[in-house]
């Protein structure tokens, strides 16, 4: 009997040595984003160094400066390094 879930529940084993910045450049993307802004890379480095065990993390940046990309990268990094499931919630009106 096949799994009735619409979600892919197969996942690779976690690899704790994934570098979050290198991961960005290895991802396939259909976007015009070629590089991280320096402030994005700084936040990612700080997160991996000091905040990865925190239960809550807030990211504050000005409008249009790339918070969404930072959040998505942190989620993917946690999925790859810790084997965690990630859920994205996108509210609308």
Gross morphology: globular
| Multimeric organization | single chain
Distance between the termini: 39 Å
Helix content: 25-40%
Number of strands: 0
Spans of at least 5 consecutive residues whose pLDDT stays below 50 are: none
Overall mean pLDDT stands at 83
- What's the helix count? 3
How much of the sequence is in beta strands?
Answer: under 5%
Order of helices and strands: HHH
The radius of gyration is 15 Å
Structural class assignment = mainly alpha
Largest sheet: none
List the helices and strands and how they pair.
Layout: H1 20-26, H2 38-51, H3 67-82
Helix pairs in contact: 2-3
What does this entry look like structurally?
The model has no long low-confidence stretch (mean pLDDT 83). This protein has helices spanning 20-26, 38-51, 67-82. The radius of gyration is 15 Å and the shape is globular. By secondary structure, the protein is mainly α. The chain starts with 19 loop residues before the first helix and ends in an 11-residue tail after the last helix. It contains three helices and no strands. The chain has a domain at 20-82.
């Amino acid at each position: 009997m096949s799994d009735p879930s619409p979600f892919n529940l197969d996942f690779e084993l976690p690899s704790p040595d994934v570098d979050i910045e290198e991961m960005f450049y290895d991802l396939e993307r259909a976007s015009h984003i070629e590089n991280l802004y320096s402030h994005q890379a700084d936040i990612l480095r700080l997160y991996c160094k000091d905040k990865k065990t925190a239960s809550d993390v807030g990211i504050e940046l000005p409008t249009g400066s790339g918070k969404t990309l930072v959040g998505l990268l942190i989620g993917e990094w946690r999925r790859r390094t810790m084997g965690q499931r990630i859920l994205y919630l996108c509210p609308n009106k």
